[in-house]
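Whiteboard transcription, Tuesday session. T.W. wrote the structure tokens on the left side:
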């Protein structure tokens, strides 16, 4: 039996494109994780197809596919644990809401140099609108 490499390659490209669209367009973190899994499965399909097409005696493509499946399982386990922790704390698993939790290097509370450019009498509430105006300019 002769394998036409175009069929699994096209299917893998379609799977990868659907996964990429899901990563870029979805707002729900669980759907983003599912899209990443689609992308990994597209890579696995390519690895197995090229392994069969090249008739590798060591079956390196299939062995690498097993490693990729193991890494994907670990990734989904850790990813779901993180999503559940975020959902318990915030009540939402939307990816857009996670941007607020990021720590910025200039917001370090132990950094005393960041207050040197403001007046000593300014409070944090008075300095915040000026910092926001500078960030948008």
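and on the right, the sequence the group agreed on:
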């Amino acid at each position: 039996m002769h394998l036409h490499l175009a069929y699994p390659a096209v299917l893998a490209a379609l799977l990868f494109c659907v996964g990429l669209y899901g990563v870029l367009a979805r707002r729900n973190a669980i759907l983003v994780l599912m899209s990443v899994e689609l992308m990994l499965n597209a890579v696995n399909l390519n690895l197995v197809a090229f392994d069969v097409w090249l008739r590798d005696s060591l079956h390196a493509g299939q062995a690498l596919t097993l490693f990729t499946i193991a890494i994907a399982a670990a990734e989904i386990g850790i990813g779901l644990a993180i999503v559940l922790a975020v959902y318990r704390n915030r009540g939402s698993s939307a990816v857009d809401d996670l941007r607020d939790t990021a720590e910025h290097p200039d917001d370090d509370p132990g950094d005393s140099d960041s207050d040197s450019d403001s007046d000593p009498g300014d409070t944090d509430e008075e300095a915040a609108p000026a910092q926001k105006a500078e960030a948008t300019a």
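Someone added at the bottom: The CA atoms of residues 115 and 122 lie 9 Å apart.
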